[in-house]
Amino acid sequence: RNELEMLLEGSPSLLTMQPEMLEEKMQRLLELVPDIGNYAPTTVGRFVLNSNERIERLAFVRECMAANSAAGSTKAQQHLKASYVLNMPQSKFMRRFPEYAVWKQTAAALQHGPM
Fold first, then answer.
1. Contact by Cβ (8 Å): 56, 31
2. Helices vs strands, H then E, count in the chain
3. In a 10 Å sphere around its CB, with 0-12 CB exposed, 13-18 middle and 19+ buried, how is residue 42 labelled?
4. What is the tens place of the pLDDT at every residue in 95-110?
5. How many CA atoms lie within 13 Å of 93's alpha carbon, on the beta-carbon side?
6. Is the pTM of this model over 0.85?
7. What is the distance between the terminal CA atoms of the chain, rounded to a whole angstrom?
8. N or C: which end of the chain has fewer CB within 10 A?
């Protein structure tokens, strides 16, 4: 079967999304999840249905991994799967990554630029 058919069967609400938003989210996921092709189409569909804020968790974790790797650390988040990061309840994510709130504010300020 066609992967697109499987994706839409597994996540029919994708059909209600604006095509531009679907494309934008999919593009961002392709940037943040290099191994996205290893996930089942239904899982990828669930990834796309996440909010932009939740998807950006992946950018934060990726930056943490890069920083820890550069520092020679072997912290556990280096091995976190995208599905785990996206499905983690907000309260648990914030307990595990308390620095995320500051990162999110900084990222928003950089995105919007000086006023």
1. no
2. 7, 0
3. middle
4. 999 999 999 999 888 8
5. 20
6. no
7. 50
8. C
